[in-house]
Amino acid sequence: MAATTGAQSPAPGEAPGTLDETQVQAMFDRIAALYDLMNTVMTAGLHHRWRQRAAQLAALAPGDRALDVATGTGDLALELARAVAPGGEVIATDFSPKMLELARAKAARRDLGRVELRFASANALSLPFGDAEFNAAAVGFGARNFADLEAGLGELARVVKPGGRVVVLEITTPRRPPLSVFFELWFDRIVPALGRLAGDAQAYSYLPSSVRRFPGPEALAAAMWRCGLREIRYQLTAGGIIATHVGVRR
């Protein structure tokens, strides 16, 4: 769903549809205008609820400072902004200029109260922030696009204060039928078909391949541990299709 730095170039044995960073950035620029509509269609509108829950797990308070990486059109950033109001600040980053343009326009239409919400272009693997600047950092549906997952997670952990939280919201692949059968049908057949109807078959063929490459919940929790996060836990929702991980910066 949301974008940040791109996937690596294909290697032997990788899922088909892998794109390099430049291609991923161009792809998200192309689909920006349809992004919100396609998210709503693909999730029956539930993606808003999942982002709300991710923001809750960040455990923010009014006046806190939060970071949203791979913000896309800004939905998770808006949830974080509500959590830190009044008096707080949210910085939301992405590497797609078109996504950031739509995010800024969306935020301008919302009454967020006394909170500062800023959008900036940034590479998730080299965030332009100092150590321990934020009370929490989150990424919603963008971690699977990191060229180096642990480098991206490490950056999220680096910029969070000790005791602060890192939240990762992502699609995961269910392993057991009947949901695994439905998931395969939906992501391998229906989603690419929707992409063709929307005029960008490549983008919505990339989505299932990026999900297939991404580590499962236990492996993602282990990667977060290696990046210095502790008290890691995760929740599976939507029958096991959505995983929300949270870890505490030690």
Q: In words, what does this structure look like?
A:
This protein has a seven-stranded mixed sheet, sandwiched between helices. It starts with 20 loop residues before the first helix and ends with a strand. The chain has one domain (21-176, 203-249): Vaccinia Virus protein VP39 (Rossmann fold). α2 (47-57) packs parallel to α3 and α6 packs antiparallel against α7 (201-213). It is built from eight helices and seven strands. It is α/β, with parallel strands linked by helices and 250 residues long. It has helices at residues 21-43, 47-57, 75-84, 97-108, 149-158, 179-198, 201-213, 217-226, and strands at 65-69, 89-94, 116-121, 134-140, 160-171, 229-237, 242-249. The relative contact order is 0.17.
Short description:
The protein is an alpha/beta fold and 250 residues long. The chain contains eight helices and seven strands; from the N terminus they run ααβαβαββαβαααββ.
Identify the notable features of this structure and list them briefly:
alpha/beta; Rossmann fold; 8 helices; seven-stranded mixed sheet; disordered N terminus; 250 residues
SSE arrangement:
Elements: H1 21-43, H2 47-57, E1 65-69, H3 75-84, E2 89-94, H4 97-108, E3 116-121, E4 134-140, H5 149-158, E5 160-171, H6 179-198, H7 201-213, H8 217-226, E6 229-237, E7 242-249
Parallel strand pairs: 1-2, 1-4, 2-3, 4-5
Antiparallel strand pairs: 5-7, 6-7
Helix pairs in contact: 1-4, 2-3, 6-7
Largest sheet: 7 strands, mixed
- Uncertain runs are 1-17
Cα distance, first to last residue?
29 Å
In terms of structural class, how would the helical and strand content be classed? alpha/beta
The shape, in one word, is globular
Portion in helices = 40-55%
CATH homologous superfamily heading? Vaccinia Virus protein VP39
Tell me the radius of gyration: 17 Å
CATH architecture: 3-Layer(aba) Sandwich
Percent of residues in β-strands? 15-25%
Kindly report the average pLDDT value: 88
Number of domains: 1
Output the number of helix runs.
8
What's the assembly state of these chains?
Answer: single chain
CATH topology: Rossmann fold
The CATH class designation is Alpha Beta
Strand segment tally: 7
Strand order within the widest sheet? 3-2-1-4-5-7-6
